[in-house]
Each structure stands twice: as C-alpha cells, then as structure tokens.
Amino acid sequence: MPFLTYPLALLAAAAIPALAAIYILRNRYRRRQVSSLMLWEFAVLSREGGAKVNKLQLPLVFFLELLALALLVTAATGPRWQLPAHARPLVVIFDDSASMLASSGGAANAPRARAAVALDDLLKSRKFLSIRLVLAGPKPRVLASAVVTAPEVRESLGQWTCQAPDAALDAAIALANDLGGPQSQLLVLTDHAPPGTEFSGDRIQWWAFGTAQPNLAFVNATRTTHGDADRVLLEVANFSATASASAAYRITSGSNLLRSATLNLEPRARQRLILNLPANTPAIEAVLADDALAADNRVTLLPAVRKRIRVQNSLEDVALRTLVDKALDSTGLRSSLSAAPELILHNARVTPAGTNAWGFRILADTNNATSHTGPFIVDTAHPLARGLALDGVVWTTGAGQGTNQFGLPIVTAGNTPLLTTQTDALGREQVTMHLLPDLSTFTATPNWPILFWNLLTWRARETPGVMESNYRLGSEVAIRSLTNTVQLLLPGGASRTLTKSAEEFILEPETPGLYTVVAGVSRWQFAVNLLSPEESDLNTAKTGKWGEWEKPEETRREYASVLWLFVLGALVVMVSHLFLVTHSKGRV
Description:
Blueprint: H1 15-25, H2 38-47, H3 60-76, E1 80-82, E2 90-95, H4 111-125, E3 131-136, E4 141-147, H5 150-156, H6 169-180, E5 185-190, E6 204-209, E7 216-226, E8 229-238, E9 245-253, E10 256-265, E11 270-278, E12 284-288, E13 298-301, E14 311-313, H7 318-331, E15 343-346, E16 358-363, E17 370-372, E18 376-378, E19 395-397, E20 408-413, E21 416-423, E22 429-434, H8 447-461, E23 465-466, E24 470-472, E25 477-480, E26 485-489, E27 495-499, E28 505-507, E29 513-519, E30 522-529, H9 533-536, E31 543-546, H10 552-558, E32 559-561, H11 563-583
Parallel strand pairs: 2-3, 2-5, 5-6, 14-15, 15-16, 16-22, 24-30
Antiparallel strand pairs: 1-32, 3-4, 6-31, 7-8, 8-11, 9-10, 9-12, 12-13, 17-19, 18-20, 20-21, 21-22, 23-25, 25-28, 26-27, 26-29, 29-30
C-alpha cells in the first residue's frame, strides 16, 4: 500500500518554486523625502559591480507560506498510515535450493542476496503483526519462533544457506498457511516463476530474483567395486540451451593428479568419464572450472565399501554344498575367512546353538516330492526377494511343506511355503528354504545367485557401519552401531551427538562434504555430493513479481487516512502567518 493515495496531486507542488520566485525576484520600494539624489545614485552604482555577494534576505512570512503550501499539497495526495492494530502476520518462504547462489557477477548478484535486500526493504516500509520464516528444502522447516523487527529477521537468515538439492515450495506454502492462519500474508522468495501460466496470488506474493545463464555441472558420480579394483563414473552436463561449452576438469587423490583434460560439450549434451582405480586409492576429488554455480562443480568420492560376510557352509550334501559355494563366490560378498561366522548354511531343522550368526537352512526331504510350476506368490518388498523372477521355474519340495512352521513366507506356491524367514529370541534371522535341487530348475536360473546376493547384502546391512560410502545430497544415510550414541563430525568441523531411537541411525545430511561417524573405537566416513540436474539447469531462472496480498477495499481497512493531520497543520501555519502579518503593519 503506497503512502500516497493520489500521487498525481504532487503536481501542485509547482506552486512552491513559484512562491519562491515571487519573493526572490520582486523589488520593494518605499517613498522617502531626501534633499538630493546624488548619494542614492552612488549606492546603486556600487551594487552593480564588485566581488562581494549580497546576502539573500527573506522574511519569516515566506517560510510560513512555503510550509503551508507543502502541507496542503501533501494533504491533496491523500496520505494513509498503517494502523498497528490492523497489521497482519507475515510468513516468508525461502527457497533453500542451491540455485539461489548462482551468479556470474559475484555473491552480491546471487538470487539469495537480492532477495534478502528486497525483504529488508519491505520490512522497513511496512509493519507486520508477526513474522515467521519457513525454509523450503526437500522437507520444509520453520526457522525459530515468531519475530517482529527487521534485525531479528536478518539474524535468522544465517540459517538460509541455500545448499539443498531441491525446494519443496508447495509443501512449504501449505506449512506457511497452517502456521500463519487465514489472516496471514505469504511471501515466496525464489529464483524462478510460479508454476502454471496464471498465478492467482490470494494472500500470497511470489518474488523471483533468478537470471537465466549457462552452466556446467556434475550430474552423476559413483564409485563402486569392480573385482579387486574400484570403478569411478562421472557425468558432466552442459545446461546451455544454445551454446557449446568447454569443460576443463581435474581429478586428484590427495596431492596426486589422476587426470586433467577438457571436455567439449554440445548444447544440452552430457558426457561420461570412467576411471579404474586400485581399491586402496584414497578419496578422490573431481573439479570443474568455475562458472555460474560453484556447488555443482566439485565432487568427492570415497573408496567403495567392501563388506564381506564370513560364511560357514555346513551343508551335508556335497553336490549341494558345491552348488551353494559357487553362488556365494559369484556375489563377491563372501569373506575368505569363515571363523566366527556371521552366516551359517545348514540342513538341520534346529538352529545351531552357541552362535550369534544368522542361519540359512535348506530342507531337502525326498519323501513325497512335489513339483511346483507356479503361480508363485513373492513378497517383493522383502530383501530376499528383490530381483527374483520365477516364471517358468520348476520348484520341487519334499514332505511336510503345508504349514508356516518356519516363519513368515517370502515365496509360496498356493498354500505351500517355499522360502520363509523368522526372527528368533536372540534377534537372529533364520531363513528356511524347502528345495530338492536335483528335481528343480531353480538352481539353473539366475534366480539362484540372485537369492544369495540378496542374502549376503541383507546380512551386510545389519552389520555395524555404513552400507555405502558415497551419497547424493538429499538421500537418507543409515548407520548401524552397537552403541546407543554416536558422534557425527560435520564437514565444517562442528560435531553432533546422535542417540539411537530405532535399530539404526537415520541421517539426512544438509550440506555436501565429508562426514565422520565415531562409535566407540569404530570410525566410518561417507561423502555427500550435490548431484541435482534440476538445480544445475539455470535456463528457467527468472526475475519478477506475481500475486497480490489483498484487494483495495481490504487494504483501506488496514490503512487509515492521515489527511486531516496535514490540513490541521496547514491551518495552524496560516493562522500564524495572519497573526504575523497583522502585527507587523506600520513598522518601519
């Protein structure tokens, strides 16, 4: 709401210089009787030349008339003033995504900096009942409690870091509506236009401060095990819509330079880089030349996690034991050690005593053999069943398969459980498989190694530590620990103590970088990288304002006219002017 309702009335201010001209340019004469004009002629001639400047002397009535004119002109514009009792709450939604830091002209030109200045100007020009701040990252969150003044808002903006991989603005607006109530006014600060072709801003204004510009970025980065080595895959994208670009990059490991070259990318093109590294190569860092957005020009990749499960194969049948060994070795997840096993394969109907290992038993009773060709019911949500495709498989079982005496069924044929799992009193998983391998085709299909891959992977996930060493920003990191608390060392050097509330710690890293988890004498590291094509693509960035907070009739109820104050002031000045003129008559 502007301070002046009728700003065109300011044209009347032209009377002010006219008044000044009347007083400055006019000549005042009084009749005097003198004996001779000789001396007067000399005074006139002395004023026509010389280096001395005559001091301009204006009477007091001039300044009173000038003040009266200024007050009347201001009153004609219809000034209004916001009523504190009618002020509304304000909820500001901040886009916390990385693209808010994009700028080719310095940090002061970044959308975040420009949005902060615009918000500060708004708070200086208008009063609000209260101000709430909402950060729109992958999950919106509220910053502190309600504030009132601009300095308090500026202090809270230290948490607006703009390092998120995306901004859930819709969810943040819904949270802001609930937070502020039906009378609140919402303000979105972002770097792109609102969704849709039309924006109906009912109590909401959308301010964008982005600038469309080309950008080069890492959009994929992985480091996985490949036999006894690590394989690194990097993908670089050119997000320019019209121009080709050259991307100079460097890949280093500590002080060692692994590769340095330049990529030539067509508009909207991507190119992959593949490196094979020894497994003992420490963390590597890949860096692109600086451009509009610095956050997507750097990735750090730690060595791939190589969790190996100690397996004891106690199957009695030699042929079956050999068949299982081949499947276990093909996974690459089996440890060369078998002492203190973490997984025991056996034929016994009773779980082996005196061990904390998981059990996997294969029951191959040849009595009353029954072949099953489907349809098979598979619990695809279970870790053991991922990737299993049993169409066309012949699965033969022996006697006694009509009940679920061995736990929760994972694979069934009709009412016959084929693969079950059960958690015993010690918290160990006991998997039971009913199978006659000589009469089945299951062992001759890819399902056989897939099953053991799933088994060892599931077991590895339940061992202490992290399952992976490299994550995308925005993904969850699961950490297993035998302790109830762990110390988390953040990339900036700060630390945080985490307390276990479930079987594992679930982290949601908020910034890229290296994290360290300390649990007693154990230490694990993982890296988090910004790999978000949506944030790196700056072609949709825009600058503009959309939406209105209220209708004119609602605004008038919030603002009161102060015209009468200026009219009253003008009357007081004119009375003073009249008094001064009246009492100065006749004075020489």
